[in-house]
Prior knowledge:
The chain is of the alpha/beta class. It has helices spanning 2-11, 14-18, 35-47, 58-78, 91-102, 123-132, 149-155, 177-186, 206-209, 234-239, 274-290, 292-311, 338-346, 360-365, 383-398; strands spanning 23-24, 85-88, 110-114, 135-139, 161-165, 190-194, 213-217, 228-232, 250-254, 257-260, 316-318, 328-333, 350-351, 353-355, 372-376. Helix 3 runs antiparallel to helix 11 (274-290), helix 4 crosses helix 11 and helix 12 runs parallel beside helix 15 (383-398).
Amino acid sequence: MIEDKVDILRSEFPIFSSNPKLIYMDSAATSQRPKSVIDKVVEVYNNYNSNVHRGIYAMAEKATQEYEDSRKEIASFLGADSDEIIFTKNTTESINLIAYALLPRLKRGTITITELEHHSNILPWRKIASLAEAEIRTVEVNEDGEISEADFEKKIPGTSLLSFAHVSNVAGTIVNARELVKKAKAQGAMVAVDGAQAAPHMKLNLHDLGADFYALSAHKMLGPTGLGILYGNKKLLDELEPPFSGGEMVKEVHKSGQEWNDVPWKFEPGTPNFVGAIGFGEAIKYLNRIGMDEIEKYEKKLSKILLEELEKISELKYIGPAENRASLLAFELNGYHPHDIAAFLDSRSIAIRSGFHCAQPLHERFGFFDGSARASLYFYNMPNEIEALANALKELVKLQ
Ligand code: PMP
């Protein structure tokens, strides 16, 4: 049980010994990294730094082997095959990559998203919709920030592609992804899932889920920055043209033409972030050692305590469901600007995020026109930190 060993786990994260007072509640923006991941990155640079899939000398082969082993580790963690795992820069790039690759298939089609989306799952589709003369439909959410079933049923017929966030980074809604995928597929739509806030916190099996694409970022789940994953159904990936091209994504290039490389390398033009990919493999090993089921169980408890403690503050208004929510809470407090809340909490060494969290339409849907303050947790947070947050907010209310 994580409760019994959270101190030990925290001691494996150098950030907490460098900042002994820090109460870090901004893991939805980026998580902290354990020493094993930091050490792995340093090990690559110190011992076998060389470009992958190029040199045939021993050191380059070692780097390539580690890079591809990491892909296998990630694939198995996600319940996918390694040739379905494409290394990108982040979730944003993964979604853009799908959008551009699907452009020819979306000509005069219909792209359906939801009101829960992060800008990264809105703007690439707006861009593609304008290039493909496609229509965008947006499925509404109810007052609890949950996808309206009735509106979904209304908007899904005729959809060419459905793209939705598995977990909302603002409302904390955990979307029933399986159900949405099943219903969309039954209507013949392709499905892409933004898993940026889901993959760090729950056990996934992408083959079981059945979506065509799934996007995530390593930096939100203990891995290095600058690395994202795009999972794609192998059959679709084989069929799609790579939207970006250049070195290493091609087998042969002649004066008159070229032959693309196999999947997944066809979608990885140029020198990849191989150090980040190898570091992410180490992060996955760390998550596997704790166990995603354990992480999910512990975070459910944290999430409940977070809501219970903050709900006691009558001046606080939050977005999202009261139950079955992720371990984050986006809120307003008695007319305080979210940045003022964050600055006050910073004076108590509590790090939270304030603003729109790249989800302005969702804030506007709930009348949060200045954005919100958001506390977001991970398995290294503790109940006494939530208590400290609640006490600081109560103090702030009294100052008015
Ligand atoms: N989608 C969601 C739901 C997110 O929370 C985030 C990160 N805030 C992203 C997409 C984008 O992730 P990245 O900035 O790593 O590309």
